[in-house]
Amino acid sequence: MTVVPRILFVHAHPDDETITTGGTIAALSGEGAQVTVLSATRGEDGEVIPADLKGLEGNRAGLARVRESEIAEAMAALGVREHLFLGGSAHTFEDSGMEWGGDGHAVAASTMPANALCAAELTTVARYIAAVIDEVRPHAVITYASNGGYGHPDHVRVHEATVAAVDTAAWRAGRLLFVDVPTEAARETFDPNQPGFAETGFAPAQTIPTKPPVSEIVVAQDISSVLDTKRRALAAHRTQVTVSGAFFALSNGIGMKILDHEYYSIGAGALISDLRLRSGPAPHVLTDLDIDACETQDSGAGAADGAAGGALPLRRRRREPKKPGFFAYAHAVVLAVLIGFLGAMQHLNVSVFDLAGTPVILPWGLALSLLLVASGLWHLKTMYRSSSPMLIAAFVIVILSYVLGQPTWLPGADIIVTGMLRSAAWLIGPMLIAAVLAFTKVRRPEAAR
């Protein structure tokens, strides 16, 4: 079976895809691979370089439209046919912004818009990425390392959400790669003593913002044959990037060399064989990845012979919760009968206080009984990850309470006085509580990872 490789790149803002992985994208596209680029935001908080466009700074909607057109031009230059924004038409995630910390690395901004990427729940961001993974069915997924490159909060959030998405997606990618820059490559990027730097007019860096690599660099993708393509794509991001010869600069004017390699570590999935790594990092992101096995979702997809420890498993699939069985419903009925009797006997108890000559009735019995109901129903929902046993229990409590309110049915069964407000509240309270809890989401413990 011959399968066209499918690779998904997940990035935070337009221009990130070109700066960090543009050569890899161009090389893969040139080889005939199906490349999809997913941008989490439209870079609404970006600074603007051209003087005639400075008015766009602070105009988030206006800058977003311009950057949409810029990334479309960059994608055309890189040969990418499918570019997506996270959330599609259903949801828009905005640039969270950043500030420079005292150590020269990016830190979270003091303020951010309500729909900023970093303001969203991690599980929400991951869910949208997972949907793209299931649609594209990539054999490899590429995103930032956990350090976010230079620490940008949106980069870190995209890393975290992509890792979680690979875990939760139904499609099992063969390899998850992280952009990770070797220390020596970072030094070369910001070295102002290289030939041609002086002619650019760019400023030399006082410190290197790139953080040290998180993991072992196992791929050094050679992009020397597509450097011109990467330069054209960089130039397309004209509000954010200035290109001069073999160098480029962002809005801070600090010059950076466009290197002829892009570097990656493997976060999960198929490893690269030790034999191949003896001579240094592999030359390609798909080295030792069995695309055919990935396509068939073979559990051993892409395992490299001789790789230390074999194939690194992608994150374990979360089990779908089992449907409640007989024991769950039996448990619900027994618990409901107990709560029903206790609540029926307790709910009429009150304490009366004199407040400035006015008697005040405190219905603590009803409050305690309804609290008992809420605790029992929540216990059932969280234990069985289902609303069904909880609703059955609420129904049993109400029916039992109704029976106990019929003095002609059972001798002495008059502990519920249906004409009293407290008894009426006790009769309808359990079902109202159950209705509220039925629409309350139970968060699985592993979702916090």
Automatic annotation (TrEMBL):
Transmembrane segment boundaries: 326-348, 360-378, 390-409, 415-439
GO terms for MF: hydrolase activity, acting on carbon-nitrogen (but not peptide) bonds, in linear amides
UniProt-listed InterPro entries: GlcNAc_PI_deacetylase-related (IPR003737), LmbE-like_dom_sf (IPR024078)
UniProt KW Transmembrane keyword: yes
Signal peptide: none
Entry-linked Gene3D superfamilies: LmbE-like
Record carries keyword ATP-binding: no
Single Gene Ontology BP annotation: glycoside metabolic process
Entry keyword set: Membrane, Transmembrane, Transmembrane helix, Zinc
Protein name per its UniProtKB record: N-acetyl-1-D-myo-inositol-2-amino-2-deoxy-alpha-D-glucopyranoside deacetylase
Native source species: Brevibacterium aurantiacum
